[in-house]
Amino acid sequence: MARILNGKEFAARMKENAAQGVRALRTCGVHPRLAVIIVGNDPASEVYVRNKQKTCEELGILSDHIALPEETTCAELLACIDELNADEEVHGILVQLPLPAALAAREEEVLSRIDPRKDVDGFHPVNVGHLFIGVPGLRPCTPAGCVRMLEYADITIEGANAVIIGRSNIVGKPMAHLLLERHATVTLCHSRTKNLAEIVRTADILVAAVGRPRFVTADMVKPGVTVIDVGINRIAPKQLVGDVDFDAVSKVAGAITPVPGGVGLLTVAMLMENVVQAAKVQTEERGGR
Ligand code: NDP
Question: Are 34 and 120 in contact (CB under 8 A)?
Fold first, then answer.
């Protein structure tokens, strides 16, 4: 049976880091603050936003919940972002995705409007570029949280064959860069990949970010592999499963994250670290305050 990589345990360490950062900033009179904009009323997004706010409260980070109606225009959303960009008390800005259908086509424009120094999701092209060329900066929370977990769990990344299934801008692609900069040999797979199972079987570290329930089966993995299951798939009103067939794969893998209780918790914890990092950088830029 594989070692279970318990997201709660690793997230607790990350949250403690963030809490320490909050305490240090507060001694300098700075109170880290996150503004979350949510447009419309997607129930899943509302749950995610509530979780983020709860974690902010737990760590002493101020959080503003800006709920805009479904029919908000792009100009109104951009104006809201501009206002937050200009507000020195706000250190982090996050626009909850997905945007309603009428705004979805302008997602790039919306995300690019956030001041890159306040872009705690790490989706702004400037931050994406920094990741690509290896300049320190705000990194996307899900992949950054996963990599931090690997480090905390003492799983060797350097020299490992890392296979990622999924090439989205928020998970797969940034994950590839984060593992590459830690000297893994990275293979990025997607829906057009040929011989997927054969490639997946070469993985020492496997990241599944596909969005298909139990897509990775036991016959696709090498004994001893470390499996990070990013997927969150609701298969019944109260049942979430990952992209990995946990029951079968955990008998072959060396280590594996569960769903729920795995990567989702790391994502929120990493967001908190990003808010603290953003607040520190902005405070230093303003000469310490
Ligand atoms: P996307 O839908 O944006 O991307 C899915 C990727 O999977 C695409 O690159 C797609 O390939 C690839 N794919 C789809 N079908 C196949 C297939 N049959 N074989 C190989 N590759 C395939 O998803 P996200 O990256 O946004 O999310 C992935 C999963 O992670 C979802 O379940 C999501 O809910 C979850 N998630 C969890 C988070 C957390 O905090 N735990 C945070 C973010 C996401 P192609 O590009 O060719 O279409």
Answer: yes
d(CA 74, CA 34): 21
**52 is annotated as an active-site residue:** yes
> Residue 263 CA: which ligand 1 atom is closest?
41
Ligand 1: does its nearest atom lie under 6 Å from the Cβ of 51? no
- Residue 212 CA, closest ligand 1 atom number: 32
Residue ranges covered by each domain of the chain: 28-117, 141-263
Distance CA(111)–CA(94), nearest Å, equals 9
Q: Which two tokens stand for residue 173?
A: 């692609």
Is any ligand 1 atom within 6 A of the Cβ of residue 210? yes
The CATH architecture annotation of domain 141-263 reads 3-Layer(aba) Sandwich (3.40)
Q: What is the pLDDT of residues 105-154, one digit of tens each?
A: 999 999 999 999 999 999 999 999 999 999 999 999 999 999 999 999 99
Distance 282 CA to ligand 1 centre (A): 33
Q: Is the pLDDT of residue 176 over 90?
A: yes
List the catalytic residue out of 121, 229, 243, 245.
Answer: 121
Measured in angstroms, how far is the CA atom of residue 176 from the centroid of ligand 1? Answer: 14
Of 24, 42, 23, 22, the C-alpha closest to 32 is 22
Residue 185 CB less than 6 A away from ligand 1: no
pLDDT, tens digit (0-9, with 9 covering 90-100), for 3-14: 999 999 999 999
Query: Taking the domain 28-117, which CATH number applies?
Result: 3.40.50.10860
